[in-house]
Protein backbone atom coordinates (compact mmCIF):
# COMPACT_ATOMS: atom_id res chain seq x y z
CA UNK A 1 0.00 0.00 0.00
CA UNK A 2 2.83 2.41 0.84
CA UNK A 3 4.43 1.78 -2.54
CA UNK A 4 1.08 2.34 -4.29
CA UNK A 5 0.55 5.66 -2.49
CA UNK A 6 4.10 6.74 -3.36
CA UNK A 7 3.55 5.96 -7.03
CA UNK A 8 0.27 7.91 -7.06
CA UNK A 9 2.04 10.89 -5.48
CA UNK A 10 4.75 10.72 -8.13
CA UNK A 11 2.16 10.58 -10.90
CA UNK A 12 0.51 13.74 -9.59
CA UNK A 13 3.91 15.42 -9.51
CA UNK A 14 4.64 14.36 -13.08
CA UNK A 15 1.33 15.59 -14.44
CA UNK A 16 1.63 18.95 -12.73
CA UNK A 17 5.11 19.54 -14.05
CA UNK A 18 4.27 18.41 -17.57
CA UNK A 19 1.66 21.13 -17.97
CA UNK A 20 4.33 23.87 -17.91
CA UNK A 21 6.44 24.97 -20.89
CA UNK A 22 9.46 22.91 -19.89
CA UNK A 23 10.83 20.01 -21.91
CA UNK A 24 11.10 17.94 -18.72
CA UNK A 25 8.94 16.08 -16.26
CA UNK A 26 9.93 16.27 -12.60
CA UNK A 27 9.20 13.47 -10.13
CA UNK A 28 9.84 13.94 -6.41
CA UNK A 29 11.24 10.82 -4.75
CA UNK A 30 11.61 11.99 -1.17
CA UNK A 31 13.78 14.20 1.00
CA UNK A 32 16.36 15.99 -1.14
CA UNK A 33 15.73 13.83 -4.19
CA UNK A 34 13.85 13.89 -7.46
CA UNK A 35 14.44 12.83 -11.02
CA UNK A 36 13.92 14.60 -14.30
CA UNK A 37 13.12 13.04 -17.63
CA UNK A 38 12.68 14.69 -21.00
CA UNK A 39 9.13 14.68 -22.37
CA UNK A 40 9.78 12.29 -25.23
CA UNK A 41 9.77 8.54 -25.72
CA UNK A 42 12.60 6.51 -24.16
CA UNK A 43 14.33 9.49 -22.53
CA UNK A 44 16.88 8.93 -19.76
CA UNK A 45 15.92 9.34 -16.11
CA UNK A 46 18.21 11.92 -14.47
CA UNK A 47 18.67 11.73 -10.71
CA UNK A 48 19.00 15.00 -8.79
CA UNK A 49 20.11 14.68 -5.15
CA UNK A 50 20.86 17.37 -2.57
CA UNK A 51 23.40 16.72 0.18
CA UNK A 52 24.25 19.77 2.25
CA UNK A 53 25.78 22.31 -0.11
CA UNK A 54 26.40 19.66 -2.78
CA UNK A 55 24.19 18.73 -5.70
CA UNK A 56 24.55 15.30 -7.29
CA UNK A 57 23.37 14.54 -10.82
CA UNK A 58 23.01 10.92 -11.91
CA UNK A 59 23.14 10.35 -15.68
CA UNK A 60 22.45 13.96 -16.77
CA UNK A 61 22.11 13.16 -20.47
CA UNK A 62 18.79 14.43 -21.87
CA UNK A 63 20.21 15.15 -25.31
CA UNK A 64 22.52 17.97 -26.35
CA UNK A 65 19.67 20.32 -27.24
CA UNK A 66 18.22 20.11 -23.71
CA UNK A 67 21.34 20.48 -21.55
CA UNK A 68 21.06 24.22 -21.07
CA UNK A 69 17.44 23.97 -19.94
CA UNK A 70 18.35 21.08 -17.63
CA UNK A 71 21.03 23.21 -16.00
CA UNK A 72 18.59 26.11 -15.60
CA UNK A 73 15.94 23.90 -13.97
CA UNK A 74 18.48 22.55 -11.51
CA UNK A 75 19.80 25.98 -10.60
CA UNK A 76 16.28 27.39 -10.21
CA UNK A 77 15.53 24.62 -7.74
CA UNK A 78 18.76 24.57 -5.70
CA UNK A 79 21.14 27.40 -6.68
CA UNK A 80 24.30 25.50 -5.70
CA UNK A 81 27.78 25.71 -7.19
CA UNK A 82 29.26 22.48 -5.78
CA UNK A 83 28.06 20.08 -8.48
CA UNK A 84 28.86 16.37 -8.91
CA UNK A 85 28.06 14.07 -11.84
CA UNK A 86 27.75 10.30 -11.46
CA UNK A 87 27.04 7.73 -14.17
CA UNK A 88 25.36 4.35 -13.81
CA UNK A 89 27.38 3.27 -16.86
CA UNK A 90 29.28 4.78 -19.76
CA UNK A 91 26.80 4.59 -22.63
CA UNK A 92 26.16 7.90 -24.35
CA UNK A 93 22.50 8.20 -23.40
CA UNK A 94 23.65 8.28 -19.75
CA UNK A 95 27.07 9.95 -19.92
CA UNK A 96 26.42 12.31 -22.84
CA UNK A 97 26.04 15.36 -20.59
CA UNK A 98 29.31 14.86 -18.71
CA UNK A 99 31.41 17.26 -20.77
CA UNK A 100 28.77 20.00 -20.59
CA UNK A 101 28.69 19.95 -16.79
CA UNK A 102 32.45 19.43 -16.43
CA UNK A 103 32.96 22.62 -18.44
CA UNK A 104 30.81 24.37 -15.85
CA UNK A 105 32.89 23.18 -12.91
CA UNK A 106 31.23 19.89 -12.01
CA UNK A 107 33.27 17.00 -10.60
CA UNK A 108 32.89 13.67 -12.43
CA UNK A 109 32.47 10.36 -10.59
CA UNK A 110 34.02 11.69 -7.37
CA UNK A 111 32.27 9.73 -4.64
CA UNK A 112 32.16 10.85 -1.02
CA UNK A 113 28.57 11.29 0.10
CA UNK A 114 27.02 10.35 3.43
CA UNK A 115 23.53 9.75 2.03
CA UNK A 116 24.54 7.76 -1.04
CA UNK A 117 25.92 4.24 -1.43
CA UNK A 118 27.17 2.60 -4.61
CA UNK A 119 27.37 -1.01 -5.74
CA UNK A 120 29.22 -2.40 -8.75
CA UNK A 121 27.82 -5.20 -10.93
CA UNK A 122 28.24 -6.49 -14.49
CA UNK A 123 24.97 -6.92 -16.37
CA UNK A 124 23.96 -4.31 -18.97
CA UNK A 125 27.55 -3.08 -19.30
CA UNK A 126 30.96 -4.16 -17.96
CA UNK A 127 30.90 -1.29 -15.45
CA UNK A 128 27.37 -0.98 -14.10
CA UNK A 129 26.91 1.06 -10.92
CA UNK A 130 23.86 1.06 -8.66
CA UNK A 131 23.30 4.12 -6.44
CA UNK A 132 21.19 3.96 -3.30
CA UNK A 133 20.00 7.27 -1.85
CA UNK A 134 19.19 6.48 1.77
CA UNK A 135 17.22 9.62 2.63
CA UNK A 136 14.66 9.07 -0.13
CA UNK A 137 14.98 5.26 -0.13
CA UNK A 138 15.53 5.37 -3.89
CA UNK A 139 17.71 3.02 -5.94
CA UNK A 140 19.09 4.27 -9.27
CA UNK A 141 19.93 1.26 -11.42
CA UNK A 142 20.57 2.61 -14.92
CA UNK A 143 19.85 0.13 -17.71
CA UNK A 144 20.23 -2.94 -15.50
CA UNK A 145 16.45 -2.50 -15.45
CA UNK A 146 14.63 -0.68 -18.24
CA UNK A 147 10.91 -0.13 -17.74
CA UNK A 148 10.10 0.59 -21.39
CA UNK A 149 12.25 -1.91 -23.30
CA UNK A 150 13.22 -5.55 -23.20
CA UNK A 151 16.03 -6.70 -20.84
CA UNK A 152 19.57 -5.91 -22.04
CA UNK A 153 21.99 -7.95 -19.93
CA UNK A 154 24.52 -8.62 -22.66
CA UNK A 155 27.72 -7.84 -20.76
CA UNK A 156 27.05 -10.06 -17.76
CA UNK A 157 25.04 -12.86 -19.33
CA UNK A 158 22.67 -14.96 -17.25
CA UNK A 159 24.85 -15.03 -14.13
CA UNK A 160 25.54 -11.30 -14.26
CA UNK A 161 21.85 -10.53 -14.69
CA UNK A 162 20.82 -12.69 -11.73
CA UNK A 163 23.57 -11.21 -9.56
CA UNK A 164 22.50 -7.67 -10.49
CA UNK A 165 18.82 -8.35 -9.76
CA UNK A 166 19.65 -9.96 -6.42
CA UNK A 167 21.97 -7.08 -5.52
CA UNK A 168 19.20 -4.54 -6.13
CA UNK A 169 16.66 -6.59 -4.18
CA UNK A 170 19.01 -6.69 -1.17
CA UNK A 171 19.41 -2.90 -1.07
CA UNK A 172 17.14 -0.80 1.12
CA UNK A 173 13.86 -2.34 2.21
CA UNK A 174 10.46 -3.45 1.00
CA UNK A 175 9.34 0.14 0.38
CA UNK A 176 12.37 1.16 -1.70
CA UNK A 177 11.66 2.67 -5.11
CA UNK A 178 13.72 1.50 -8.05
CA UNK A 179 14.46 4.19 -10.64
CA UNK A 180 15.29 2.54 -13.98
CA UNK A 181 17.43 4.04 -16.71
CA UNK A 182 14.26 4.65 -18.72
CA UNK A 183 10.59 4.48 -17.80
CA UNK A 184 8.63 4.76 -14.56
CA UNK A 185 9.94 3.82 -11.09
CA UNK A 186 8.74 0.53 -9.62
CA UNK A 187 8.68 -1.33 -6.33
CA UNK A 188 10.67 -4.47 -5.57
CA UNK A 189 7.79 -6.83 -6.33
CA UNK A 190 7.85 -5.62 -9.94
CA UNK A 191 11.60 -6.21 -10.15
CA UNK A 192 11.14 -9.74 -8.81
CA UNK A 193 8.62 -10.39 -11.59
CA UNK A 194 11.02 -8.84 -14.12
CA UNK A 195 13.75 -11.24 -13.01
CA UNK A 196 11.36 -14.20 -13.20
CA UNK A 197 10.09 -13.20 -16.65
CA UNK A 198 13.60 -12.71 -18.01
CA UNK A 199 14.63 -16.19 -16.92
CA UNK A 200 11.37 -17.56 -18.39
CA UNK A 201 12.20 -15.83 -21.67
CA UNK A 202 15.67 -17.36 -21.76
CA UNK A 203 14.28 -20.77 -20.84
CA UNK A 204 11.75 -20.65 -23.66
CA UNK A 205 14.32 -19.47 -26.22
CA UNK A 206 16.56 -22.33 -25.07
CA UNK A 207 13.75 -24.86 -25.53
CA UNK A 208 12.95 -23.57 -29.01
CA UNK A 209 16.54 -23.51 -30.23
CA UNK A 210 16.93 -27.13 -29.08
CA UNK A 211 14.10 -27.91 -31.50
CA UNK A 212 16.20 -26.30 -34.25
CA UNK A 213 13.59 -23.60 -34.83
CA UNK A 214 14.57 -20.56 -36.87
CA UNK A 215 14.35 -17.08 -35.35
CA UNK A 216 11.32 -16.35 -37.53
CA UNK A 217 9.63 -19.47 -36.17
CA UNK A 218 10.53 -18.53 -32.60
CA UNK A 219 8.96 -15.11 -33.02
CA UNK A 220 5.67 -16.80 -33.92
CA UNK A 221 5.70 -18.95 -30.79
CA UNK A 222 2.71 -17.98 -28.64
CA UNK A 223 4.39 -18.68 -25.31
CA UNK A 224 7.48 -16.65 -26.21
CA UNK A 225 5.34 -13.73 -27.36
CA UNK A 226 3.33 -13.84 -24.14
CA UNK A 227 6.55 -13.62 -22.12
CA UNK A 228 7.79 -10.72 -24.25
CA UNK A 229 4.58 -8.79 -23.59
CA UNK A 230 5.24 -8.98 -19.82
CA UNK A 231 8.05 -6.44 -20.29
CA UNK A 232 5.61 -3.95 -21.85
CA UNK A 233 5.00 -1.85 -18.73
CA UNK A 234 3.68 1.08 -20.77
CA UNK A 235 1.26 -1.12 -22.77
CA UNK A 236 2.51 0.20 -26.10
CA UNK A 237 1.16 -1.33 -29.30
CA UNK A 238 3.31 -2.58 -30.77
CA UNK A 239 5.71 -2.94 -27.84
CA UNK A 240 8.87 -3.32 -29.95
CA UNK A 241 9.77 -2.82 -33.60
CA UNK A 242 10.15 -6.12 -35.48
CA UNK A 243 13.88 -5.49 -35.86
CA UNK A 244 14.27 -5.11 -32.08
CA UNK A 245 12.31 -8.32 -31.43
CA UNK A 246 14.60 -10.24 -33.76
CA UNK A 247 17.72 -8.73 -32.25
CA UNK A 248 16.55 -9.65 -28.74
CA UNK A 249 16.15 -13.30 -29.78
CA UNK A 250 19.54 -13.30 -31.54
CA UNK A 251 21.30 -11.87 -28.51
CA UNK A 252 19.49 -14.23 -26.16
CA UNK A 253 20.72 -17.18 -28.23
CA UNK A 254 24.27 -15.80 -28.13
CA UNK A 255 24.07 -15.52 -24.33
CA UNK A 256 22.74 -19.07 -24.02
CA UNK A 257 25.54 -20.34 -26.28
CA UNK A 258 28.07 -18.56 -24.10
CA UNK A 259 26.66 -19.91 -20.84
CA UNK A 260 25.83 -23.41 -22.02
CA UNK A 261 22.05 -22.93 -21.78
CA UNK A 262 19.68 -22.29 -18.90
Averaging pLDDT over every residue, what do you get? 90
The second-level CATH architecture is: 4-Layer Sandwich
Q: What profile does the largest beta sheet have?
A: 6 strands, mixed
Query: Which regions have little confidence, pLDDT < 50, spanning 5+ residues?
Result: 1-20
Spatial order of strands in the largest sheet? 1-2-3-4-5-6
- Helix count equals 9
Proportion of residues in extended strands: 15-25%
Distance between the termini: 35 Å
Q: Helical residue percent?
A: 40-55%
CATH class: Alpha Beta
Q: What assembly state would you assign to the polypeptide chains in this entry?
A: single chain
Overall spatial form:
elongated
CATH superfamily: Ribonuclease Z/Hydroxyacylglutathione hydrolase-like
How many structural domains?
Answer: 1
Order of helices and strands: HEEEEHEHHEEEEHEHHHH
Folded structure, characterized:
Mean pLDDT is 90; it is low at 1-20. Helix 5 runs antiparallel to helix 6 and helix 6 (188-210) runs antiparallel to helix 8. This protein is α/β, with parallel strands linked by helices. It is elongated. The protein is built from nine helices and ten strands. Helices cover 40% and strands 20% of the residues. This is beta-lactamase. Belongs to the metallo-beta-lactamase superfamily. Class-B beta-lactamase family. It catalyses: a beta-lactam + H2O = a substituted beta-amino acid. Its EC number is 3.5.2.6.
Amino acid sequence: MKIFISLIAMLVSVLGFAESDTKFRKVKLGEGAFFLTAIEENSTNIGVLKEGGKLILIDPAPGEDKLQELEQLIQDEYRVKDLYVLNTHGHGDHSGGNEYFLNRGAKLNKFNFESLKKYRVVSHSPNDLIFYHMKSNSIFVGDIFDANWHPTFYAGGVDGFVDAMDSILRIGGEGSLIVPGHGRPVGKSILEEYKKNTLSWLGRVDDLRKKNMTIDEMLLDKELRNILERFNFEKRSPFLPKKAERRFVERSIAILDRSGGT
